[in-house]
Amino acid sequence: MITTTKNIISTQCANINLLWGQLLIEELVRLGVYNICIAPGSRSTPLTMAASAHPNIKTYCHFDERGLGYFAIGLAKGTQSPVAIITTSGGAVANLHPAIIEARMSQVPLLVLSGDRPDELI
What we know:
Elements: H1 5-30, E1 35-39, H2 45-53, E2 58-61, H3 65-79, E3 83-87, H4 91-95, H5 97-106, E4 110-114
Parallel strand pairs: 1-2, 1-3, 3-4
Helix pairs in contact: 1-2, 3-5
């Protein structure tokens, strides 16, 4: 296999993104978040991998963001602790909007972590 500068940069960026994901998840655990709901997508993969690998995090996965948002509210109410949601960018975040409004109106601690599009795609 021929190693090119592009391959090296791509690998380094992936490792940096995973490192940032691990640091973010570790800080969430330090602050009392132990449940994370995931609607997987390519842009949020580093966060998903970090959450899945953390020994103190219980993850729940679902393909539909809207349903996952309401599940997260129920989980937060049931455990009386904050719950994080990991999703990819764009329409996925917009699908969480009704649950975010419900959480705010019910004073349920809900955190939304989203992968973002690269600058060149915005």
